[in-house]
Amino acid sequence: MNPRRFTLLAAGLATTVAPLLTLPTAHAAAPSDLGWVTGTVVDTHGDPVEGALVNVLPPREIPELGMIDDRNQRWTVTDADGKFRVRQDDRGFLVQVCEAEPEAGAICRFPTEADYLVRYAGPDGAFDSWVQHTDLYDGSTTDLALGQVEVQPPARIKGVLEGAEHELVQVMRLNDTVALNTQTDESGRFTFDGLAPGRYYVRAGGFGTLPWQSDPITIDATHPGTVTGTLEGGTVLVGKAFDEATGEPARRTEIFLANGDGEPIASLITGRRGTFRFTGLIAGDYQVGQLRHGGAFVPHLEDVTVGDVDQVRADVPLTRGATATLRLRGTDGRVDSELRDSAGEVIYPNLLREDGVATYPGLAKGRYTLVAKDGSGYGIRSFRVREVKAYDLGRLRLDQPLLTLRGRTAPRAVVEATTSDLCPADSPFEQGAFHEIEQADASGHYVIRGLVPGEHWMVAADGFPGNYAPICHDDVVITQSQRYDVPLAAGNTLTGRLVYAGTDRPVIANLGYDVTYPEGQVTNPTSEHPTVGRTRGSTGEFTVTRIPDGAATGNLGLTGYDEAYAPSLWFYFPYQVATPYWLEAEPIELEITGDIDLGDIELVLKGAA
Predict the structure, then answer these.
(1) Strand partners, 606
(2) pLDDT tens across 8-63, in order?
(3) What is the SS3 assignment for 85?
(4) What is the CATH number that goes with domain 1-8+322-387+389-465?
(5) Where are the domains of the chain?
(6) Quick check: do 1-8+322-387+389-465 and 492-606 share a fold?
(7) pLDDT digits (tens, 9 = 90+) for 333-390
(8) How far apart are CA 74 and CA 72, in angstroms?
(9) What is the pLDDT of residues 261-304, one digit of tens each?
(10) What does each C-alpha distance from 125 to 48, 160, 367 come to in angstroms?
């Protein structure tokens, strides 16, 4: 997830971040008038499997590898004859059979550690993944006899990657999503256990080496895959960072490698001779040097072009900067502070020690402003660096009254003011020290207290869960207590239904539909409140709200919004760990001027033989 976004969590509101794409479970005991599901779990030789875990899973729980709450009546384990008897569910269900995680109740053992694959039985048959099913058993008062449910042995991929010592290796579905992860040993050997039969490829590298991937391979339990390869180092960039004035090496200095646009790729700390070495580069334009403040030297980058060669060299001359030290007086509680350059941009947030002393190194010639605040007031000190020396800024008393921002927004909307650069929500994150959040009242009035003067505040509002499009305002100048309205436009609503291709059968599990926008718009949603709609039960129906006017794209939910803390925004990915299958829908280009009903959207099963 891109961390650059405005947070919009109201003061006093719950701020717990939900686990990535998991759904709440409510496992009430099954009604006693529902029928039972009976059957026998056997292996491929027809022999009974004792101790197999059998779960009855309604739509909200289908993708789980077991159920979190083991107090319900919808799970059991097989006896010595492989037989089971378990309650149905009146919401419709699949029957999941797996190897139980020892002493973990109704939880399946992770595929890499299991002796047989997870199996799902439904009206369509028994398959290795819930993704292969298109229908549910209906709960009823009549018992359901499944007969034999055969569990399958897992498939395996093993191999050797030369030049890969303790490297991440991934087995991939053919849609470029990760099925499993593992790591090479000291000799580059690796093994993937627990895979469902199917077609995959393996990839590695890209972190100090060139990216590598294998050709696709087809595997099953009797035909394991074997993959070999070599991680290549690519072009090596070597150099030396040194003090331009003295020629002395810049020891223990963080050096960044960035692309031609200045976006960081990697960083390292120079050695005692100031040397650095980056590997795995492909042809292109780069920048190397000290990217940001944080040491004795002034930030400086050198341009370097990499061609089709084994090694290039780029030395980095650095200029030692001045230092400035400040001491605070009369502080009350927590203190926040930032040092700003002559343009008002934050270069050092929160360097104050607990004793109220802060030292700012690596300062170039120019004018700076130091602002600090505690719970009752703020102080401000401007100074000019004219030469490379240590400046003592003396003591600063935090005795100026804090500023207040008040205005109108949507009813109950959350409004925040911060000096962090978070606008637009999808742009690169830059850290500031000051951040205040409040919630408007039922009339849309808000008040934010505890602010300090600045020319680069961001003020943003989000009316979630109300149907308003969020907005952020960048570079807001606040020099005094003032009124600042943050009106929110009413959001549009998009509805539709996910169905299986060629049928009118709705999707059986809680997938999501995602509406995304061109980058850089101030009305783009935050990562806490993405414009995602989750299907309701097994209806396949979804609703997405808070959609602004303009161009957008609708697609099946594939992005991991791990910062989304509202359960209504959690959904499952349309694939399952350790299997090659996935569901896919055609993206839809939208021009939004009002509410939209997409009707039925067809999902196609991919990855199957």
Answers:
(1) 582
(2) 333 333 322 233 344 444 444 445 689 999 999 999 999 999 999 999 999 999 99
(3) strand
(4) 2.60.40.10
(5) 1-8+322-387+389-465, 235-309, 492-606
(6) yes
(7) 789 999 999 999 999 999 988 888 999 999 999 999 999 999 999 999 999 999 999 9
(8) 6
(9) 888 999 999 999 999 999 999 999 999 999 999 999 999 999 99
(10) 19, 37, 73
Kindly state the tokens that stand for 99: 């190897």
Kindly indicate the confidence band of residue 69, based on its pLDDT and cuts at 50, 70 and 90: low
The predicted model scores a pTM of 0.88
Which architecture characterizes domain 492-606 according to CATH? Sandwich (2.60)
pLDDT at position 565 over 90:
no
Residue type, 102: P
Instruction: State how far the Cα of 543 lies from the Cα of 475, in Å rounded to an integer.
Output: 34
Distances (CA, A) of 343 to 163, 226, 295, 362, 373: 48, 58, 21, 17, 20
Phi-psi domain of 46 (left: phi exceeds 0; alpha: psi -120 through 50; beta: other): left
Q: How far apart are CA 352 and CA 294, in angstroms?
A: 14
Interacting residues of 150 by C-beta distance below 8 A, sequence separation 6+: 41, 42, 43, 44, 119, 126
Region 235-309: CATH code: 2.60.40.10
Return phi, psi of residue 599, to 5°. 70, -150
Among 37, 42, 77, 53, smallest CA distance to 148 is for: 42
Is there a contact between 60 and 537 (Cβ–Cβ < 8 Å)? Answer: yes
Q: Look at residues 192, 195, 201 and name the one whose alpha carbon lies nearest to residue 174.
A: 201
Category of 280 on φ-ψ map: left (φ > 0), alpha (ψ -120 to 50) or beta: left
